[in-house]
Amino acid sequence: MKKFIETIKNIFKIEELRKRLVYTLLLILVYRLGCFIVIPGIDATMLASLQDKTSTGLVGLLNMFSGGAFGNASVFALGVMPYISASIVVQLLGMFVPYFRKLQMEGESGRRRINQITRYLTIVILAIQCPAYMAAVHNQIPGTAFVAVNQLGWSNFVFNIVCTIILMAGSMFVMWLGERITDRGIGNGISLLIMIGIVARLPYALVAEVGEKLTTNNGGLLLLIVEFIVLFFVFVAAIALTQGVRRVPVNYAKRIVGNKQYGGVRQYIPLKINAAGVMPIIFAQAIMLFPLLFSRWDATRGLAATMSNYTGFWYNAIFFIFVVIFTYFYTAVTVNPTMIAEDMKKNGGFIPGVKPGKKTVDYLDSIMSKVTLPGSIFLGLISIFPAFAMIAGVSDQFASFYGGTSLLILVGVVLDTLQQIESYLLMRHYDGLMKTGRLSGRSGM
User: Fold this and answer.
1) What is the CATH code of the structural domain delimited by 1-211?
2) What are 210-213's contacts with CB under 8 Å, separation 24+?
3) What pTM does this model have?
C-alpha cells in the first residue's frame, strides 16, 4: 500500500501528466453532466417507461455505453456510438475499396483524410438514427410528456426536427470531447467515454445486488462473497485474453551506411490472441435481434420467443457460434499478413527459417488461425457468461459485468490508460504502476 501511495504522489509530481489528468477529468465531468440534461420540451418526470425499455438487449447495451443517457432522453442520448459505427464502416471499406486502402497507406495525411470522412459519415448515420430514436421515444412515453407539443403548440414534425438537430449536435460534441481527451489528456478519448458510461452504471447495479442478497433469503452474505470471488477471476481471465499475444521473432539484416551499422537485431511481431476486441460480440448481438422483428406473426413467434430468452440454451448456443465466426471474420479484416510481410521485406526483415514473400504470408496466416481459435472460444465463453450468472441468481444489471462487451471494454481501456500513465513515470525515472516497474503484456513488446 505504501508503494501505491508513493506512485500516486509521483504521478502528481510530473507537471505534464498532472495537467493531462486534470484536463481529462474535467472533460469527463462535462460529459457526465450532459448525460442528465433532458432534451428540451420533454418532461423528465415521465421517462420511467423509456428507462424500463432500455434495460435489456442491444438497446440496453447502447444505454450502458451512453452511461444511461439513452434511457434519460438526454441531449447525449446517442453518445459516441454513431462515430464508432462510422469508424467500423470506414475500416471495412479499407479492406475492399482501393481508394480507402490507399489512404491507409499514406501515413499522416491519409489518416487525417480518413478522420474527415469518418466525421461526415457520422453525420449521415446520425441523420438516420436521431429520427428513429425520437420515434421510439414517442412510442414509449405518454403523449403528455411532450411539453413543447401540448403547451407551446408545436407540431410533432417541427418538434422532431428540433430534437434531431439537438441530438446530432450532442453526439458531435461528445465526439469532440473524445478527440480532445486523446490529444491533450490521457488515454483514447472515445474509448474512455464509453468506459465511463459503463462504470457509471456499476454503483447502481452493485447497490441493487447487495440490497437484494442481504434483505432476502437468496443466500445472504455468503453468496454475495462467492459472487465477488467469481467476478474477480472473470476479470483475471479477461485481462489474460486482452494481454495474450504470440510473439513471432523477426531478424533484420545488417546494413552499413557510412560509419554506422543498421539492423542486425531481433525483434518480435506481437500477434494478439484476441485481435478482434469486442466487435464480434457487438456484431453477434445485433444479429440476434433480427428474429425479434418477426414476433408479430404466429408462424415465427416461437423463434422470436427463443431468441428473446437470454438465459435459454439455444439463444446462448447460437450466440456463442456467432461470436466465434465473427472473431475469425474481424481478425481477417484487421490483421493483414500480406501487408505485414511486405513491410518486413521493405525493411530487410525476415522470420528465421521462413522464406520472404508468399511463404511468410502463409506462415503468419497459419499462426493467426491457430491463436484465433482458442481466442474465439474464450471470447465466446465470456460473451455468454452473464447468462450463467443470471441463472445462478445474479441480478440482470450486475450480471452484465460478468462478461460480454462491458467487461472487455473496461479491461482494455483501463490497461491502455495505465500503460500511458506508466510511460510518463518511467520516462522520469520513477517506478511504474507495478512492482516490477512495467505493466506485463503490451508494454513488454
Assistant:
1) 1.10.3370.10
2) 212/395
3) 0.78
